Amino acid sequence: MARVVVISPPFRSHAAPLSVLGSALRRAGADVSLACTPPFADLAESAGLGFLELTVTRNANHGIAERTAQEEGEAARLREFLAATADGAVAALLMQARHRRADMLAEPDRVLRDVRDLDRRVRPDWYVVDQLSYPVTLALHSLALPYATFCPGHPSYIPVGPDAFFGLPYAWPDTLRPDPAALAPLRAAVEENDTAFTSAFRTALRYEAPQRSVPERAFTLCSSHAVVFNYPEFPWLPPAPTGPSALYTGHCRTEPDAADLDPAWRAVVDRLTTGGRPLVLVALGTFLSARHDVLRVAVEGILQHTDASVIVAAGDRAVDLAHDPVLGSAPTDRLHIAETVPQQALLPVTAAMVHHGGNNSFTECVSAGVPALFLPFSSDQFAIAHDAERAGVGRSLDPNTLDAPSAGAAVRALLAGSRTRSDALRDDVRARGPHWAAAELLQLMPDRPGAGR
């Protein structure tokens, strides 16, 4: 039996799909543990995994970003990021680029020591590591430990080619395409990060593991065995890294019939869909639910310009939305406001979704056959929105110029449109998924003599 340790950063949006992959590995016969911070022990338990305490970054998001207790510096960066999203796509990406060195390569020496200690205690055969946990990848490379890379976002998170850079979208949806001149500061910032991260990697390797190979570019360092992309294998995607096997799972969620609604949520759905009314789910993720101004406009547009009902995940802003003059007067059979929602369980009864273009929301909609309106703010969301439009399973609008009529018209078009392409893509990604990826990994990953067996 292979012994595997799955290492996740302390973010719910990363740990959740990693725990699903870990559960699939366990069902395929491996002994699997999730290594993360203590607030994620429950996630490991629910997935049937062992749990190992490991901190790989200073910042965290346990489910609602603004409510997660963290150091003041990290909280300040979150506030700066949210403020930047209101200034548009380039401003948000620039802020993320400026924060990147502080929150993505923090304490590499300490992480290496902790990974070394964990390895000596547990002696796994191999690891699965989140691509964005750069200190962990650096530690595993330094220690010559076998690992598979899990790419939690768009496949371009692993840049391939001289013109590709982490933090610079490889493509944009038409409605948010910046002027090329406006992208010049962003390109300069991501190139500077590329150089700085690579220099930091080389310094660490020179000190900790001078016998190990030095990556030409830090952001391209990944497993030499396998890279698991939590994404569909679209034919127009940028090339995957040469060398490792590229495994496109299509999605990394529980099976559609394994996430049944509990009675309370079933009652909510029954109330909102009385008479056959379609249901639209509105959620902007664990960070961007703080943009309740955009949530309010999107929900208002659906209520005023379609006949659908709405469930909205509003995080810490649920009370604000409930007291909004327009939304607060909405009939109870058309609107339900909650802090959090069981998104995967709701999608099978959802006719359309409005979301930020996060990878989990996108792939969960794809695997449920649900078309979506994309309101991208940052990160890889612009690239994902582009791919969704090209695949014919979504539309995109600029969240910062959104108005109720345009939001309503876009959702109305989704509700009235053909589902042929959504259904075809759904069937395609369901043919793969986490269980397929687990079986492939168990074939591809090498045995480690004297470990795990």
TrEMBL record:
Pfam families per record: EryCIII-like_C
Superkingdom of origin organism: Bacteria
Protein name (record): Glycosyltransferase
Record key words, sorted: Transferase
Taxonomic source organism: Kitasatospora paranensis
Keyword Magnesium: no
Erythromycin biosynthesis protein CIII-like C-terminal domain ranges (all copies): 306-431
Keyword Cell inner membrane attributed: no
Upper lineage: Bacteria, Bacillati, Actinomycetota, Actinomycetes, Kitasatosporales
InterPro entries to which the protein is assigned, alphabetical: EryCIII-like_C, Glycosyltransferase_28, UDP_glucos_trans
